[in-house]
Amino acid sequence: xxxxxxxxxxxxxxxxxxxxxxxxxxxxxxxxxxxxxxxxxxxxxxxxxxxxxxxxxxxxxxxxxxxxxxxxxxxxxxxxxxxxxxxxxxxxxxxxxxxxxxxxxxxxxxxxxxxxxxxxxxxxxxxxxxxxxxxxxxxxxxxxxxxxxxxxxxxxxxxxxxxxxxxxxxxxxxxxxxxxxxxxxxxxxxxxxxxxxxxxxxxxxxxxxxxxxxxxxxxxxxxxxxxxxxxxxxxx
Length: 236
Hints:
- This protein is of the alpha+beta class.
- It has two domains: about 5-100, Orthogonal Bundle (DNA polymerase, domain 1), CATH 1.10.150.20; about 100-225, 3-Layer(aba) Sandwich (Cytidine Deaminase, domain 2), CATH 3.40.140.
- It is about 40% helix and about 15% strand.
- It is built from nine helices and five strands, in the order αααααααββαβαββ.
- Strands 2-1-3-4-5 form a five-stranded mixed beta sheet, sandwiched between helices.
- α9 (about 190-205) links the parallel β3 and β4 (about 205-215).
- The protein starts with 15 loop residues before the first helix and ends in a 9-residue tail after the last strand.
């Protein structure tokens, strides 16, 4: 069994806990914050060193948050307990984002829809179709997941969408899904589903206000989502 190198074995100025207490959490790097969760490293490698290996392996916090327990345990120095601690920390962060979300927000723009769904969408590894149900004042009733697909395929039927909307007594809905590839550009299937839903909504007197697709921002594409209404697919 490999000997553990504890954070307290490091010189005081290099200890992340002491640095956090002295400087504040905002002054620490992501690797230092992760090292605090890990607590111990391996022989010759501090917890900070293991944390740096973890970040090097996954590249971004989003990919790290999406990693399974088995993927985390595959990193040298990350056992089951450390992997569980990391999953717990990222889940707490997601729960906090939900908790501070304004109660019954007004959702009358695609930006607000994206803000509502963004944190949860970041952790999804397959396409997931959601319905945002709104009252007559365009305030949130609830969000309901309707379907999950494979990495890039999603099957959805208007019946499932409007069954949820009718049960919630919704006056209007916004449909949304994520693109795990990161590119939110709508596919032909996305456009077809949108038009089918618009027609079904007209028959049921439930307005389909938009279809928002969430991806990831890039230097060339600073906005991480698209609105099919803004793209003109809702034009009469």
